[in-house]
Design brief:
The protein has 79 residues and is mainly alpha-helical. Helix content is 61%, strand content 0%. The protein is elongated and about 70 Å long.
């Protein structure tokens, strides 16, 4: 399982950290009933996604699954 990677890259970590900070900001300002602060947190959440995507495109993310195994091979059933 650990060999699959699951986003252990600088792009993934940066995007998640920025989005988490935005989530905390939006949550705090929701409790404080401060609408502009809430929307600032929402902007941070979106910014985290954009920054993570840009970093992935810059080569700091996990590569896509572009392996070609060809057609599936059919094996005769034993029995």
């Amino acid at each position: 399982m650990s060999s699959s990677g699951h986003g252990h890259t600088p792009a993934a970590w940066t995007g998640v950290i920025i989005s988490f900070i935005g989530f905390c900001v939006a949550g705090a300002f929701t409790v404080l009933a401060n609408v502009p602060g809430f929307w600032a947190g929402m902007v941070l959440i979106g910014l985290g996604a954009v920054v993570g995507g840009v970093m992935r495109l810059a080569g700091m993310g996990q590569g896509g699954k572009r392996t070609s195994h060809g057609p599936a091979k059919v094996r005769p059933q034993e029995g």
